[in-house]
């Protein structure tokens, strides 16, 4: 397999019923650079023009943009455009070859090895991930005693895909996982939260990843679910293999079809746009994401109609 | 005599007694006090008790209890006897608290910095990453002077062997230092001679050190640093203390929406624009401080504050994230952390506490449940402590199952046998009772290390065998006297001298919220006055004679009562219903009328506490308290009248303070504008009702009531010595600008204030009054001072409209209050 090159346009538009006097927005719209992902070009346009924009890395190492809009506005448009090269990364993935899941739990909880410290960040409850007996019961089936850790994760990933229906009307950005578990439906964000919660309730490290997948598949391939908006999946930490990403929405082990934006404990850490506004009244929100695969680096990008959510 | 004093004071068999030794003889440092109590005449002690209660009530010291049926504003419960501690013992406590503060500060710096402790395994990840109080956006925050913990409090308890132990650490926004100060002011006045003779150490130096250290570290370049005290608002349980400390320390008291973040700096929204804030002493919880990066559902904070703190542009005391250390789970790790970070053993132990997240600790806790108290491991869990020996049967099994399901959420703590101290029996003239006590000791960071307030807040349990002391559960408090070995030390300040750049004029820091409250303070005090006078008029008429509908003046009065919604439109005017409605308007604050308006006045005044002098505040406070006492009583009409008389006098005292006791700054002008607008509207309404009276044939019109309502009877009589007639009455109440109740006086005053405000704030609408002033000046005394004058009627109507518009306009421009809202996009 070779590197894939993607062009991403992520456009967010708010229309407010009454004027917004002041707004501050925190944007997680810049793909982070990783061992397998390079950001070749990137620009964010905001209209109206913010009075201030600053950039920093958040606690998890994700790039963040902080925009302040201090003149009154009725609408806000944020367009993020990125050119990304993603390398294959699951080369030697053999789920059955990983250690028993109990030993992963022991390792992370009882020793303080500095190299696993980053993973210890992702072992606990977080604002949108609450443990419950129902959650523990749900996950137990995938983790019988002694099962290799990644084998269990892989099966859990598959089960969630099988047992939950994709339904973008059933839930919202703050639906608790207990409700998702009961409804048996939701969107990629819900499935990622659910699976993250399942692993953590067993004492296993898992983080929430926000990003994109191809909206227009290569000829002959099926269009993936969750492609019109930003996507979300799960990354599990195995002391031997490091972080391995799973996409329960598409029943996939993540490779180079996924473009990573940011990761954190859950959605609240990495929401693409999190804002505080003064005024505004009712608001309408539209999000369009278009991801196209650029065939050759030199080739100009195709003009692409935006797929409405 | 001592025998009687101790007749109800039980021997402390299983606990330490602060006052008496094992032979029931007063300890040395209690001798003088005990002697006093034994010999003081009963009458003197009674006076002392009353003095304490009077001061608590006059100063309006309150503590809001959430669960109490009395709700907000419960009076502070202060015992007359101080807790006394000898010098040497205090030195031990002081050193231990300084060490502990320094240790906790080091832990905070580490967790929010290099995280060496996690890497070395000295702190388990669960206590950091698994702690809801670990604020990731606060990581990498810039700590001025290497200090994140500026103000710290330790809750101490004394075990039967006389040693002090730490029960809990308060590291986020410790409360109680202000109450301790207020306790001191009251108790030192009750025992002035003892206080001097015993050489009790003073508290003022501690607060000066706190104030000056924060100013010293505030990133202020060369400006005079502006330090504010950030409060969640009047509904917080310790709001009294926030306002009190703000006033005492000279910091503006602000709420989240008074501040804004621009260019990574924090600014105070003031009347004259944005003013840079260099340091924030916060009483707001960590996670409520910034809706942009922290808990988004809280509207109490300031969007962008975390970013400003990370960039080092504002000092936060305490630093964001310091709540982390309030976890009882940390206590068991402190001895090792102390050795590792400070190279010292802990000088004062924590009460034995184990975090159940470690499986051995969990099993031990379950095994010894009867002798332990189980507490939530993290304050964010907001759960009550559970005493093991309270549990039995199914309840016990269920609780153990809960602990096993989430062991990391629990800590087990040894039960402390609290020491006992004497409190004065309020039911008995000369008798001491024993109560369990604990002590909250405060430390603040200074450039020379931590200093400890010499004397803390002693908290008193409700019974002698109490296991917990909680202000939320109705505990009381005591002043704490630390005796000095030699002459009482007055703290020498590290404060730099005040330079010319520090001089301040004209209330530059007036926040928009403060200005709004001053404006409404003006309006409500005037509204109370108008309502009181109207009710008095109605009551007097009822007492004099049974009024009839045919009585022209009476119909105007009832019309005004209807306008004020004291009478409802459908009320028919039988005497019984009328008296009932008038009484309700005087005592029932849930109805329209005097009591309700006074309540509003009090509400606004509470928000202005740090701006009002103590005398001024007492006047407001007493006014409302007197009414609160009458609530639900049936007043005789004559009593109601004298009640109103007293109210009118108190309200005049308030306007006296406004006239003679307040600086003529912009805030004062807003207060005065409020008064003028309210009075203008009331006088216009009263005149309109008078003009609408049916003509009374040949006889003189009934205008006495109108003069009385406008407090102008004396002036009229001294000028005309005759029964009131239309022309001179209208002249006096409308055109005469020397009469402080006349329309002309209000208009002229309003115009002047608005012009003055406009000079520094830009046009404030003085011009909108010009047409009314013009028509007032051109009234024709020959034709227009008559009920039939159309020009007069139009003037009154226009004035009502203009004053209403003016009020709206000022509100929109200067008081704009909007609530922040959080948004998410995927």
For the structure shown, list the relevant keywords:
heterodimer; A: 309 residues; alpha+beta; Immunoglobulin-like; C8orf32 fold; 5-stranded antiparallel sheet; 7 helices; B: 826 residues; Dna Ligase, domain 1; 7-stranded antiparallel sheet; 4-stranded parallel sheet; 27 helices; 44% helix; 13% strand; globular
What does the secondary structure layout of this molecule look like, with pairings?
The complex is a heterodimer of chains A (about 300) and B (about 850).
Chain A (H helix, E strand, L loop, with lengths): L3 E24 L9 E11 L4 E6 L5 E7 L3 E14 L14 H10 L6 H4 L12 H8 L8 H15 L1 E2 L10 H7 L1 E2 L1 H14 L4 E8 L17 E8 L3 E6 L4 E2 L4 E7 L2 H4 L2 E7 L3 E11 L16
Parallel strand pairs in A: 6-7
Antiparallel strand pairs in A: 1-4, 1-5, 1-13, 1-14, 2-5, 3-4, 8-9, 8-12, 9-10, 10-11
Chain B lengths: L1 H4 L25 H9 L2 H17 L3 E2 L10 E2 L7 E3 L1 H25 L4 H4 L5 H4 L22 E8 L5 E7 L6 H14 L1 H6 L6 H14 L9 E4 L8 H11 L3 E2 L4 E4 L2 E6 L2 E5 L1 E4 L22 H6 L4 E3 L16 H9 L10 E3 L3 H9 L4 E5 L9 E2 L5 H13 L4 E5 L4 E6 L7 E15 L2 E4 L4 E4 L15 E3 L1 E3 L29 H33 L7 H12 L11 H13 L6 H14 L6 H17 L6 H24 L5 H26 L12 H6 L3 H8 L5 H10 L7 H19 L8 H8 L12 H25 L5 E6 L1
H/E series of chain A, N to C? EEEEEHHHHEHEHEEEEEHEE
Number of strands of chain A: 14
Structural class of chain B: alpha+beta
Q: How many distinct helices of chain B?
A: 27
CATH topology call of the largest domain in chain A = C8orf32 fold
| Biggest sheet overview of chain A | 7 strands, antiparallel
Radius of gyration of chain B, CA atoms, in whole angstroms: 31 Å
Q: How helical, in percent, are the residues of chain A?
A: 10-25%
**Mean pLDDT of chain B, as a whole number?**
87
Number of domains of chain A: 2
Shape of chain A: globular
Q: State Rg of chain A.
A: 20 Å
Tell me the number of helical segments of chain A per DSSP (H or I, 4 or more residues long).
7
């Amino acid at each position: 397999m070779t590197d894939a090159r993607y062009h991403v346009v992520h456009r967010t538009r708010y229309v407010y019923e009454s004027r917004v006097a002041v707004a501050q927005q925190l944007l997680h719209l810049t793909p982070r650079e990783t061992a397998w992902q390079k950001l070749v070009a990137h620009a964010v346009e905001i209209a109206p023009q913010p009075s201030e924009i600053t950039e920093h890395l958040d606690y998890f190492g994700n790039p963040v943009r902080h925009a302040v809009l201090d003149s009154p506005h009725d609408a806000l448009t944020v367009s993020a455009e990125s050119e990304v090269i993603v390398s294959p990364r699951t080369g030697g993935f053999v789920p059955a070859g990983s250690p028993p899941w109990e030993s992963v739990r022991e390792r992370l909880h009882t020793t303080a090895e500095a190299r696993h410290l980053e993973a210890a960040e992702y072992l606990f409850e977080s604002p949108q991930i609450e443990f419950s007996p129902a959650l523990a019961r749900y996950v137990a089936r995938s983790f019988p005693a002694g099962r290799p850790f990644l084998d269990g994760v892989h099966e859990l990933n598959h089960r969630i895909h099988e047992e939950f229906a994709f339904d973008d009307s059933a839930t919202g950005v703050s639906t608790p996982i207990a409700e998702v578990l009961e409804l048996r439906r939701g969107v990629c964000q819900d499935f990622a939260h659910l699976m993250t919660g399942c692993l953590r309730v067993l004492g296993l490290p898992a983080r929430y990843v926000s990003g994109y997948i191809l909206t227009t598949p290569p000829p002959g391939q099926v269009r993936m679910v969750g492609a019109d908006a930003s996507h979300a999946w799960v990354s599990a930490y195995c002391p031997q293999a490091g972080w391995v990403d799973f996409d329960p929405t598409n029943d996939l082990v993540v490779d180079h079809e996924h473009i990573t934006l940011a990761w954190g404990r859950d959605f609240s850490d990495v929401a693409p746009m999190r804002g505080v506004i003064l005024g505004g009244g009712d608001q309408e929100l539209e999000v369009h994401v278009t991801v196209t695969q650029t065939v050759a680096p030199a080739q100009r990008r195709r003009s692409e109609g935006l797929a409405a959510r | 005599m001592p025998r009687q004093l101790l007749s109800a004071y039980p021997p402390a068999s299983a606990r330490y007694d602060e006052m008496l030794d094992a032979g029931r003889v007063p300890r040395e440092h209690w001798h003088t006090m005990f002697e006093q109590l034994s010999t003081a005449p009963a009458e003197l002690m009674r006076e002392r008790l009353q003095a304490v209660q009077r001061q608590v009530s006059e100063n309006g010291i309150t503590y809001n209890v959430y669960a109490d049926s009395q709700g907000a504003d419960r009076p502070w419960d202060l015992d007359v006897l101080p807790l006394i501690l000898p010098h040497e013992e205090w030195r031990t406590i002081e050193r231990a608290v300084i060490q502990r503060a320094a240790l906790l500060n080091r832990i905070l710096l580490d967790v929010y910095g290099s995280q060496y402790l996690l890497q070395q395994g000295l702190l388990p990840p669960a206590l950091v990453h698994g702690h809801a109080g670990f604020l990731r956006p606060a990581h990498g925050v810039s700590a001025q002077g290497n200090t994140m913990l500026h103000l710290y409090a330790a809750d101490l308890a004394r075990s039967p062997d006389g040693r002090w132990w730490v029960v809990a650490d308060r590291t986020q926004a410790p409360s109680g230092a202000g109450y301790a100060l207020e306790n001191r002011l009251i108790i030192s006045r009750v025992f002035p001679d003892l206080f001097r003779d015993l050489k009790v150490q003073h508290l003022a130096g501690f607060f000066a050190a706190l104030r000056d250290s924060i100013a010293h570290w505030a990133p202020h370049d060369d400006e005079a640093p502006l330090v504010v005290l950030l409060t969640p608002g009047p509904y917080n349980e310790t709001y009294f203390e926030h306002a009190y400390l703000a006033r005492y320390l000279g910091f503006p008291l602000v709420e989240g929406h008074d501040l804004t973040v621009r260019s990574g700096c924090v600014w105070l929204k003031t009347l004259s624009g944005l003013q840079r804030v260099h340091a924030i002493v916060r009483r707001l919880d960590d996670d409520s401080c910034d809706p942009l990066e922290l808990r988004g559902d809280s509207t109490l904070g300031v969007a962008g504050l975390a970013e400003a703190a990370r960039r080092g542009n504002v000092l936060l005391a305490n630093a964001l994230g310091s709540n982390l250390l309030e976890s009882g789970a940390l206590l068991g790790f402190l001895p090792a952390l102390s050795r590792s970070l400070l190279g010292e053993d802990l000088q004062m132990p924590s009460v034995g506490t184990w975090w159940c997240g470690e499986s051995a600790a969990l099993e031990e806790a379950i095994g010894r449940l009867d002798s332990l108290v189980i507490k939530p491991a993290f304050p964010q869990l907001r759960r009550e402590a559970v005493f093991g020996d309270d549990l039995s049967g199914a309840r016990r099994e269920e609780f153990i199952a809960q602990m096993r399901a989430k062991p990391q959420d629990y800590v087990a703590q040894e039960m402390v046998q609290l020491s006992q101290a004497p409190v004065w029996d309020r039911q008995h003239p000369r008798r001491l009772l024993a109560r369990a006590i604990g002590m909250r000791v405060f430390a603040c960071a200074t450039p020379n290390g931590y200093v400890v307030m010499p004397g803390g807040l002693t908290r008193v349990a409700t019974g002698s065998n109490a296991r917990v002391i909680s202000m939320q559960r109705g505990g009381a408090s005591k002043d704490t006297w630390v005796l000095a070995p030699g002459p009482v030390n007055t703290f020498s300040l590290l404060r730099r001298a005040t330079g010319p750049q520090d001089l301040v004029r004209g209330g530059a820091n007036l926040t928009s919220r403060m200005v709004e409250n001053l404006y409404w303070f003006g309006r409500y005090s005037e509204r109370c006055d108008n309502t009181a006078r109207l009710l008095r008029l109605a009551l007097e008429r009822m007492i004099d004679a049974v009024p009839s509908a045919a009585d022209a003046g009476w119909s105007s009065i009832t019309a005004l009562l209807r306008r004020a919604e004291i009478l409802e439109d459908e009320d028919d005017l039988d005497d019984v219903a009328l008296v009932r409605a008038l009484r309700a308007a005087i005592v029932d604050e849930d109805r329209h009328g005097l009591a309700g308006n006074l309540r509003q006045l009090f509400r606004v005044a509470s928000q202005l506490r740090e701006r009002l002098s103590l005398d001024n505040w007492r006047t407001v406070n007493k006014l409302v308290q007197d009414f609160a006492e009458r609530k639900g009583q049936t007043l005789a009409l004559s009593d109601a009248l004298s009640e109103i008389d007293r109210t009118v006098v108190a309200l005049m005292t308030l306007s006296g303070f406004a006239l003679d006791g307040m600086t003529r700054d912009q805030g004062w002008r807003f207060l005065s504008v409020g008064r003028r607008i309210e009075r203008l509207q009331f006088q216009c309404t009263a005149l309109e009702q008078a003009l609408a009276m049916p003509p009374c044939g040949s006889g003189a019109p009934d205008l006495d009531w109108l003069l009385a309502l406008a407090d102008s009877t004396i002036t009229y009589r001294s000028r005309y010595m005759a029964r009131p007639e239309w022309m001179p009455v209208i002249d006096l109440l409308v055109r005469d600008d020397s009469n402080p109740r006349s329309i002309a006086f209000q208009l002229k005053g309003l115009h002047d204030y608005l012009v003055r405000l406009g000079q520094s704030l830009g046009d404030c609408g003085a011009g909108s009054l010009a047409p009314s002033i013009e028509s007032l000046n051109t009234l024709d005394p020959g034709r227009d001072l008559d009920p039939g004058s159309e020009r007069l009627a139009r003037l009154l109507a226009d004035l009502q409209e203009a004053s209403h518009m003016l009020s709206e306009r000022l509100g929109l421009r200067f008081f704009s209050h909007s609530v922040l809202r959080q948004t998410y996009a995927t």
